[in-house]
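DM from R.C. (forwarded with permission)

"hey, sorry to bug you on a friday — could you get me a structure for this? deadline for the figure draft is monday and I only need the backbone to look sensible"
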Amino acid sequence: MNKKPDRKTAMLNIINLVKDDFPFEDPSVQICGDTCVGCPKKLLELVESEIMHWEYVIEQDELPNLTEISRFAKLCKNVRRGLVRNGILTAEIKK
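My reply, with the result:
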């Protein structure tokens, strides 16, 4: 039987997956274009600020609750969907 991760590990796992998948450092995403379906630059900034917040919170030995983990995961899923719509990411998730 697989043991479920604790709340800290679950949040850090999501953060690491997002950092590996999202193109935070890609200069082409930092430029506004004509055909955006939701601004990729602003979407990435939103997720990046949430990541910085949660890394700080966890560093202070505070734990997110399950609702906060779920909300962050949903935000990342929705932002990823927007990045796919804009052609920034493919529909397949990197592993």
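R.C.: lifesaver. The mean pLDDT is 88.
me: no worries. Residues 11 and 48 are 14 Å apart (CA to CA).
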